[in-house]
Amino acid sequence: MEFTAKQIAGLIQGEIEGNENQVVRDVSKIEEGRPETLTFLANPKYEHYIYTTEASVVIVNNSFKPEKPVKATLIKVNDAYQALAKLLQFYESSLPKKTGIEQPSFIHETSEMGDFVYVGAFAYIGEKTKIGKNVQIWPGSFIGEGVILGDNTIVYSGVKIYKHCKIGSDCIIHSGAVVGSDGFGFAPGADGEYQKIPQVGNVVIEDLVEIGANTTIDRATMGSTIIRRGAKLDNLVQVAHNVEIGYNTVIAAQTGIAGSTKIGSNCMFGGQTGVAGHIKVADGTRLAAQTGVAGAVKKENTTLMGSPAFDAMQYNKSYVFFRKLPDLYKQLQDIQQKIAEK
Q1: 156 Cα distance to chain centroid
Q2: 202 in helix, strand or coil?
Q3: Residue 245 lies in a domain
Q4: Helix or strand (DSSP H, E) at 293
Q5: Active-site residue, selected from the candidate residues 108, 164, 241, 278
Q6: What does pTM read for this prediction?
Q7: Contacts 24+ apart (CB under 8 A), 37-45
Q8: What is the CATH number of the domain that holds 88?
Q9: How many domains in the chain?
Q10: Domain presence at residue 107
């Protein structure tokens, strides 16, 4: 990798302040900047690093006004974080892509393979699968019977995709993820034993979805568990049977969503949130970390905290009183003692 500040500015439609011929050969964090590296400043709390960083080029917001001299070359853009993302996507897309079939691997004779596919060693591709063009299936992955993988999708090492699941185009499924395992369905009998309910549905993942490492998405009892276009699931997320996750919803690690719940579009769930089953969560809902949702969220674009969840502003006000409870309890005891002494 070697670019000049001028070339970088051209890629992200930025305005240069400083040496347009400054060469960049790598990237670095602003607090650990090294000469001939590129970094960025998007969060104001990191601003003090820009005056001491050794990085040669820094992408900043147009609104940034330095309080002291900055020795690095600046590239000013509307949104530094998005500009960096665009730049790194460009860089990644310029890298050579693996193609070809490594051995040993198994590809069933009835499977259909698109052009420029990569299949790593010890991968298993079952019968009647359809693999799109430019798909990458890394070593040790399992692609079950009748699975469909859309164009440009990446399946990293150790992923397991059970039979009849459908994955869209431009998806990324990280190592250890399991797509299409049985939903947790059991019928209690009169003798107290549980009888397994066969899970005969599948999982449908639409285009531009990213699934984190060791995330599990259960197949539907009947019908489909659905992850809509553009959704992003972090590592260690559990999605139960017949759940539907809406467009462009993002869900952080260790979140669990119980069966048959419908999550709206453009929602944001913090880490370790829990959502009960058979409820609906409105579009634009934001859940703070460790929030527990036991009932339907009907109002769009609300922010909830706590368990059970309620309005975030009310939660913060209540928390002020919660912290004072020990003192209030002591005051109550003192009052009770004075009354008893009279």
Answers
A1: 15
A2: strand
A3: yes
A4: strand 292-293
A5: 241
A6: 0.87
A7: 38/3, 38/8, 38/87, 40/80, 40/81, 40/83, 40/84, 41/80, 42/79, 42/80, 42/81, 42/84
A8: 3.40.1390.10
A9: 2
A10: no
Question: In terms of domains, do 172 and 285 share one?
Answer: yes
Q: What is the pLDDT of residues 89-143, one digit of tens each?
A: 888 888 888 899 999 999 999 999 999 999 999 999 999 999 999 999 999 999 9
Task: Please give the Cα distance from 153 to 105 (Å, whole number).
Answer: 19
Using CA atoms, how far residue 231 sits from 75, 85, 129, 157, 275, in Å, is 31, 17, 24, 21, 17
Q: Which structural domain, as residue segments, surrounds residue 64?
A: 3-94
CA distances from 52 to 32, 69, 70 (A): 10, 10, 8
Residue in the block written with tokens 């001939």: 36
Give the integer Cα–Cα distance in Å for 192 and 136. 47
State residue 332's pLDDT score: 86
Tell me which H or E stretch contains 143: strand 142-143
**Mean pLDDT, rounded, of the chain:** 94
Task: Clarify whether 174 is annotated catalytic.
Answer: no
d(CA 260, CA 243): 5
At residue 320, the pLDDT reads: 76
Residues 90-93: contacts with CB within 8 Å, 24+ apart?
90/11, 91/1
Strands of the 244-245 sheet, one edge to the other: 112-113, 130-131, 148-149, 166-167, 202-205, 224-227, 244-245, 262-263, 280-281
Q: 73 lies in a domain?
A: yes
Q: Is the pLDDT of residue 149 over 90?
A: yes
Q: Looking at residue 302, what is its pLDDT?
A: 95
Distance CA 90, CA 84 (A): 10
Mean pLDDT of 300-312: 86
C-alpha 150: how far from chain center? 20
Amino acid at 309: A
Tens-place pLDDT, residues 229-264? 999 999 999 999 999 999 999 999 999 999 999 999
